[in-house]
Each structure stands twice: as structure tokens, then as C-alpha cells.
């Protein structure tokens, strides 16, 4: 049983009545709530049982209890009701003048550096667009766009697009961050090979940053010495400040923490430290006009 089957096969009024019966466990009380005779309630439940081919309720002296089939139907019926409520809400937005609703999944680097201002600039031009924006690691962003949970994704170029259309967005610079009293703090620049001798405060294992750092360490025949893994850039900087390791982070992100956390940014002498961020979409040419307009604006943001 799934949502599609329920939506096609079952009467929505009957499902709503069944949910109330399942929650109240008393047909007489449900009849009063729905302004229906108990016989009408029983008829609705019986029709559902005939469609499913299994009993949904067990009657007893105190009321009714759900059978295993009834528990399963309740779970999916509630999902149908929730989905329909969301549908009504979004369509109501259109009626009140909202012209679009876009879902964006993005990696932390994009959300921490560029996306807030770019979205603010876009909204100033198109104030009737609504957004759902979620922070995800690169591989999760790809999956969300591929299966339709996100309209647009933002990833680092090191993450394979897996058949999605990739569009250049922004560039950032990865830099080493260390405590001000660290052995590397006096350096203006450093090679990654030297950095690998130290313990790291690193990002989540599925993040594009972790994939990049691990791959570059492998090329040097060395291992990334991860002491701590944590997803928040702010928390990574705090951990570095506490002397728990070094980190590699986007320069524009760590600039705000250098003075307050007593940190030093050291340039990485590596070509891969200049990193490209990309927009990913199923297909630009089949995207909605609202999504195309957003993509076109984001492409121009770094021009």
C-alpha cells in the first residue's frame, strides 16, 4: 500500500472518517463529531474493509481497536491528509498572489558565503517567490534533485553530478585555519603535504570537503588524521581555537572568526584550493519559468 494507491482507490471522506474512528476508538462519539448516524460510520468502514480485503477494526465493549491492517491504513491515510493540506496551502498561496515556490538544497559552503545575499537580491526583484532551503552534504543534494525533492541544488565541482545538468555558480578559496600559537601560524602559505602531519578538525564524511581532502591526501600517499568530525563551520572554528586540530575552510567563511577566536588563516599552495561551486538541475530547458529565472540570476551573481 502506498500514497498513490490510496489516493486513487479510496474515497477521501471515508478515509477522513476512518482516521477519526482510529483516534477516538468509539463509533458513537465519531457519529456526534461528524454529524452522522453510527450506521453510516459503520458502512464507510465496511466499504474500506471490502476494498482492502481485511478487517480494520475489532469491536469490543469499550469501543473499537485497530487490526494490523487498520494500523497500516491509518499511517498512510494520515499522510494523504497531510499532503492534501499542504496542497491546499500552496495553491492558496498562488491565489493570494505568490507566483512560485522553489526548493533548494545546498552545501554549507554555498549557504555560508553566497546564497543568502543572492537570494535577497533575487527576492528584491521577485518578491512573490517563496523558498524552502535546506543544508545538505553534496551527495545528498544530488539525490534530492534527482528524485524531485529539490528543484535546485548547489554543490562543489568535486561532487559528481550523476546525470544532472551542472551550471557554474561561484568560486571560493579553501584555506588552512590554525590557532594563533600553532607552529604553522607564522607562515603566509603552506603546502598540503606539510599540513597532513597535523591532526584535523574535519567535516562530515559525506561532505564534498572531506572527499576532496581525502583524495588529495591519497595522491600524496598520506592519510588525513581526523581527530574530530563536525558539520558546522562555526563549530569547526571553535574546535580549532581550542587546540583540537587544524581545519581547511573557505576563506570568506573564516574571516569573521579570525579575531574573535584567535585564529590565523594560512594560504594553501595548491591549485585545488581554488574551488568551483555549481548549480545542479534535472534539465534547464524543461525547468519552470520561475526556476529558470532564479538560475539565470544566480549565474549572473558572480559576473
UniProtKB/TrEMBL annotation:
Record-annotated HTH lysR-type domain positions: 10-67
Gene3D superfamilies: 3.40.190.290, Winged helix-like DNA-binding domain superfamily/Winged helix DNA-binding domain
Residues spanning the membrane: none
A Pfam family reported for this protein in Swiss-Prot or TrEMBL: LysR_substrate
Keyword tags: DNA-binding, Transcription, Transcription regulation
CDD domains per UniProt: PBP2_LTTR_like_1
Keyword Transcription: yes
InterPro entries for the chain: HTH-type_LysR_regulators, LysR_HTH_N, LysR_subst-bd, WH-like_DNA-bd_sf, WH_DNA-bd_sf
Family listed: Belongs to the LysR transcriptional regulatory family.
Name under which the protein is recorded: LysR family transcriptional regulator
Protein source organism: Pseudomonas lutea
Amino acid at each position: 500500500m502506498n500514497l498513490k494507491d490510496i489516493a486513487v482507490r479510496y474515497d477521501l471522506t471515508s478515509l477522513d472518517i476512518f482516521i477519526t474512528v482510529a483516534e477516538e476508538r468509539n463509533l458513537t462519539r465519531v457519529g456526534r463529531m461528524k454529524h452522522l448516524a453510527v450506521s453510516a460510520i459503520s458502512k464507510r468502514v465496511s466499504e474500506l474493509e471490502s476494498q482492502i480485503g481485511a478487517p480494520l477494526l475489532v469491536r469490543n465493549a469499550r469501543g473499537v481497536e485497530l487490526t494490523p491492517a487498520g494500523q497500516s491504513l491509518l499511517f498512510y491515510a494520515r499522510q494523504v491528509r497531510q499532503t492534501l493540506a499542504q496542497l491546499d496551502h500552496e495553491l492558496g498561496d498562488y491565489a493570494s498572489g505568490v507566483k512560485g515556490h522553489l526548493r533548494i538544497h545546498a552545501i554549507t559552503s554555498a549557504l555560508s558565503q553566497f546564497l543568502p545575499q543572492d537570494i535577497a537580491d533575487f527576492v528584491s526583484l521577485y518578491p512573490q517567490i517563496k523558498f524552502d532551503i535546506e543544508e545538505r552534504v553534496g551527495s545528498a543534494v544530488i539525490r534530492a534533485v534527482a528524485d524531485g525533492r529539490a528543484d535546485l541544488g548547489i554543490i562543489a565541482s568535486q561532487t559528481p553530478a550523476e546525470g544532472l545538468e551542472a551550471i557554474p555558480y561561484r568560486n571560493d578559496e579553501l584555506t588552512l585555519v590554525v590557532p594563533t600559537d600553532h607552529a604553522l601560524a607564522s607562515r603566509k602559505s603552506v603546502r598540503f603535504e606539510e599540513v597532513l602531519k597535523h591532526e584535523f578538525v574535519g567535516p562530515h564524511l559525506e561532505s564534498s570537503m572531506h572527499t576532496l581532502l581525502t583524495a588529495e591526501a591519497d595522491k600524496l600517499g598520506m592519510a588525513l588524521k581526523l581527530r574530530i568530525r563536525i558539520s558546522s563551520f562555526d563549530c569547526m572554528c571553535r574546535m580549532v581555537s581550542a587546540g583540537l586540530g587544524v581545519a581547511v575552510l573557505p576563506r570568506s567563511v573564516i574571516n569573521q572568526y579570525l579575531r574573535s577566536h584567535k585564529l590565523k588563516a594560512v594560504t594553501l599552495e595548491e591549485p585545488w584550493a581554488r574551488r568551483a561551486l555549481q548549480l545542479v538541475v534535472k534539465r534547464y530547458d524543461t525547468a519552470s519559468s520561475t526556476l529558470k529565472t532564479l538560475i539565470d540570476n544566480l549565474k549572473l551573481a558572480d559576473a
